[in-house]
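User: Assemble these into one structure.

Assistant: Restating your components, then the assembled model:
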Amino acid sequence: MVPSDGVAPPSSDGVCLVEARAITKRFRSTLAVDAVDLDLRRGEVLALLGPNGAGKTTTVRMLVGILRPDAGTITFHVDGRAVARPAAGDLGYLPEDRGLIRDVPVRRTLEHFAVLRGMDRGRARARAAEELERFGLGDRGDERVDRLSKGNQQKVQFLAAVLHQPRLAVLDEPFSGFDPVNQQRFVEEIRALRDRGTTVLLSAHQMDLVEQLADRLVLMDQGRVVLRGALPEIRRSTRSGARLAVGIGGAVDAHELESVAGVEQAEATGGGAWSLRLDPDVEVGAVLHALTGRWSVRDVSSSAERLHEIFLRTVGRSGLDEDDPREAAE
Amino acid sequence: MNARVWAVTRWEFLRFAKARDLIVGALIFAVMFGAGGSFGEFVTGLGDDARTVRVVGGLTVLPAEGVTLSGVHFEPGSATDVDSLLAVEAIDAALLEADDGTWELRVRRERRWTDLVGARFAGLLVQERAGQLGLDAAQLRSLTQPPELRTVTVGDAPRRDGRTSVFTAGIALGVMFMALFIGFSFVFVAITAEKTQRTTESMLSALTPQEWIDGKILGLTGAVFVNLLSAVAGYVAWQAVAVLFLDRPAALPGGAHPADVFGLALFALGGFAFWFTLFALVAATIDDPNSSSRSSLMFLPFLLMGAAFAGLDSPDAPWMRALSIAPGTSPAAMPVRLMRGDPHFLEVVASLVLLAAGAWFFRWAAGRVFGTSMLMTGKEPSLREVLRWLREA
């Protein structure tokens, strides 16, 4: 089946793999997820975003079958069949909290996860050896998981989720514990995973990485979907104006800059530099013309509004720190 | 039972039954059995060597070379050097007759074997007085020997074999207790610790909570069995050393009918299944083992099963019959009755059926409770919540 919302990204054939309709989950008096619709298209990376407590993790847990929705349906379209729960081998899951047994060697852990996902033990062993080598952990396969650094444990967790080459990989905070170099490496890994045909559902707080990686975005707040689509579509739908970075000589304050036609918001970034958010209906050239008419403009550059800024503007919050508060299951 | 359950079973078994740990465990058990035996001898003072007791007085039944009676060697001698001989431990005790015909037992310090010396010496005195009364050895024997009583059973052949079967039944109970302790610790690590460390979430997207619990219980039961075998190997090793190098008699359980052994194995398996599934159920509700008061529930089986020890000498008493039917206590009480008592066949069947039903119920309940509670952090479900989940399952 082909989903109706938006255009399929180039990596996707547009066919829907997972279709969630009006899924709802309540914990006591808290409505954690409120009638959420979600489509995941084959071969895409869909980013599920939202502030802490938005309902992302509950949504993810319902999609992977750990929680049962109180209402609504989740359907997987696999090989022309519609099923409520995919075969174990079709799904890979990297949970938000590291989910590895710590007192067991790395290699055995990977084999075990792959066997649980339906892989033959011999094949699992070979794949584990290959992938550990590729991730620079070839000589650490016989060490206990808890002897590895946080970053390396996260690599093992990632491998445990995708070693069996699932159709759908659900990655909840995959960049957690990585330094910037490894974060960038994992962006490439997830892209490669998608290019090999795996559909990826990604939940992360690192907006710059999500922006690089996601074909489409779903932004949740207070249990509901508040935005969805590819980033350009979202920019359009949120009337996201351009950003103008200008260096101005002489004294000027934010009020003066915001009085210029087309400037919605001005923020000083230090040393006479300013970041201006423009009205989406106004031409950048017209604003620049107005600015140069009143002040001495030393330098200027423009860019589209960043995902991070759209996020802040949409959910109206500033806290992007780690970890959703864990919902109690009852 | 599917491939995923077996995969979990294999995983848990290999995790808790490591060859190196088992070998080390067997060696530790061997040392512990050896140390335990030596400690017992030290405390009781009863070793394999006979105690040497000098007898000073007019005892005509005592030959010049002395006589040994069940661990005590009585030898005649003079009173002059008794204290110095005691001081250098050349003799263990001395019996000295006073002028009024009473006897004094002189020792360096009182030990448990001094009672034994008194009992044996009483036998010697009886012989002495019988001689004074003109009774010969045959007359004395006919006076002191208890009547010969043969027991004839008209049903099955008698299985009870006095102290040997008490020893065997005691060992069986001890092994069952050891298994419970090992299983308790394994279940705690395999379920509560994993739940606390949040290691279960990724697994439960691949298999159901019931499959996970089933695999755990099977794997842990297997691991408990091989750990028990390691303890048995340790005991056998100690016995081999004791017999071959220390010239001691072997102390091995015996007197059990093969059918009893089969029954014991059956009840042991049932008991493991029952108690391990209950452990799993409790473990699945614990949020933090450091602060949870629920951990103490895990000790319940030890209290209940401990009651069976009291039934070793009265295996068919009404209360033992009740314990042998109730699922929580039958794994300990029924084997005792099988070895020491005479349970009816239907009692055994009823006991097994109830045990199996109880284990099945707890297995099901553990799966349901774990499926719901494994994502709960910060609080433990109340009993009311647990019961509601089970009703709604």
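Chain B touches chain A at residues 3-4, 7-8, 11, 14-15, 194, 197-207, 372-379, 381, 385, 389 (CB under 8 Å).
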